[in-house]
Structures are given as structure tokens and as C-alpha cells.
Q: What sequence folds into this?
């Protein structure tokens, strides 16, 4: 697209500047340094700011502007991070979740394994489905691990699935959701039913996804792998309705 003096050939100014990761980190650091008694007022001001500010459009005298969707200067994700930062993290229980998925055939019988550690408590969880995929079981492990937490927690979730870790940590899943579960103009996002659940659970906790190399001697990761494999070999497995539904099956393979 051609550009002259900050104007596009549609006669509208360039989109409003969005916060970069560095700017976001610096801003969150300032929030962290703000005394607790002032944070609630600061967050209130941020919400009012987001609701009231929209980009200014510069109109070319020769071109009639086309309607544009309103954009706020502060993203929903940034506000959520500010809210999380404003809370006293020391009051949240710290949880470590190790998760893994397995599938025989891919698609085929699948299972997930979870090791949950909080303080001195360690718990193993697993489950299986009749017909599913490996990626869906990786996601299901994360979903079930977060679902069992009774209250808001500070969670470090370890997974050997870059599909899961990158989609959350790099914001891909949020972008797919915003775009109506489309990766781009031509491709649908895969497994939207599970991404919907996982994003909702992540919003209820402070969650950091960390990738670990599979089959590399990590004790808890190896344990999750064994649990997942054993689960998919059990009898009377559940149905993965989100995958087996013919309408869903076309968009669930990845």
C-alpha cells in the first residue's frame, strides 16, 4: 500500500500504535512499583481510558472514509495482566502442573496424563478417549489440570507440546479466537472447542506455560507420558464428542 505524509491511499491515518512486548513489560513494572493502596484507582482509570479513547482519523479531502471498527489503545490482554499484577501474588497458592498427551494411530485411542504439585502434595491424574488426536490430548491434559484447582492459583504448566505452549505464550490462540477461530483468511483454527475452554481457564488463574523436551529424562514429564499411554489402553474409554462430531472433525485435524 502506498503512503504519503503518514496517509494511506484510502485517505485514513495509520492504525493506532499498539503496545509492544517491551512497552508492556515496562508498563507492568511500573504498576508493580505502585503502592497497593493506589492500584485500584489506577485500574479504574485504565478501564475508563479504554472505554473512552478511540483513534483519530485523518480524512483526505478527496476520499470519503469507510467505517472502521473502534479500536482501544489498551488491549484486553494488557488489562488482564495489570489486574493480575495488582493482586498480591504471595496470597495465591503456587502450583506446578506437568502435562502430556498420547494417541495410538493419531487419530485413534488417546489419553492424557497429569502430575499436580502444590507444596508437599503431589497428585497423578489421567483419562482416555476412544477416538481423538495427540494434540487434543495435549490440550485436554492442560484443561483438566487447571479444572481441578479449587481456587485462583499461580500456575507453572510444563508441557512438551510446542503446539500448546506457543499458542498460549505467543498469543496465537487469543488471535484465532478474536478472528472467529480463523488462522488467516483461508484457514480455520484447529480444535476451537478445546482452545475456548483452555483460554477461559487461563483467565481464571495466573498461568505460565513452559516447554520441556519430551523423553529427555525429566521425571515428571516421563511420568505424565506413562500415565497418558496407559490411559489410552484402557477399556470403556470416553467419547471425544468435539472431535467425533462430523462437523467438528473437518477442523480438528492439525
A:
Amino acid at each position: 500500500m502506498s503512503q504519503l505524509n503518514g496517509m494511506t491511499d484510502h485517505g485514513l491515518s495509520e492504525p493506532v500504535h499498539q503496545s509492544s512486548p517491551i512497552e508492556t513489560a515496562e508498563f507492568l513494572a511500573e504498576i508493580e512499583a505502585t503502592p497497593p493502596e493506589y492500584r485500584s484507582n489506577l485500574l479504574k482509570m485504565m478501564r475508563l481510558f479504554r472505554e473512552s479513547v478511540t483513534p483519530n482519523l485523518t480524512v483526505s479531502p478527496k476520499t470519503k472514509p469507510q467505517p472502521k471498527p473502534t479500536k482501544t489503545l489498551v488491549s484486553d490482554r494488557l488489562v488482564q495482566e495489570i489486574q493480575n499484577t495488582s493482586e498480591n501474588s504471595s496470597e495465591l497458592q503456587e502450583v506446578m502442573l506437568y502435562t502430556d498427551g498420547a494417541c495410538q494411530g493419531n487419530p485413534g485411542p488417546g489419553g492424557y496424563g497429569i502430575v499436580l504439585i502444590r507444596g508437599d502434595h503431589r497428585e497423578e491424574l489421567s483419562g482416555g478417549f476412544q477416538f481423538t488426536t495427540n494434540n487434543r490430548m495435549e490440550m485436554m491434559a492442560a484443561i483438566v489440570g487447571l479444572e481441578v484447582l479449587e481456587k485462583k492459583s499461580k500456575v507453572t504448566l510444563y508441557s512438551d507440546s510446542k503446539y500448546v505452549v506457543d499458542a498460549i505464550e505467543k498469543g496465537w490462540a487469543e488471535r484465532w479466537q478474536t478472528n472467529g477461530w480463523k488462522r488467516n483468511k483461508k484457514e480455520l483454527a484447529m480444535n476451537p472447542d478445546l482452545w475456548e475452554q483452555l483460554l477461559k481457564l487461563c483467565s481464571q488463574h495466573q498461568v505460565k506455560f513452559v516447554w520441556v523436551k519430551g523423553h529427555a529424562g525429566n521425571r515428571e514429564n516421563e511420568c505424565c507420558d506413562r500415565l497418558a499411554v496407559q490411559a489410552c489402553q484402557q477399556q470403556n474409554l470416553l467419547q471425544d464428542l468435539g472431535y467425533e462430531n462430523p462437523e467438528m472433525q473437518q477442523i480438528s485435524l492439525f
In short: The chain is about 40% helix and 20% strand. Residues 3-87 form one domain. The longest strand covers residues 121-132. The radius of gyration is 22 Å.
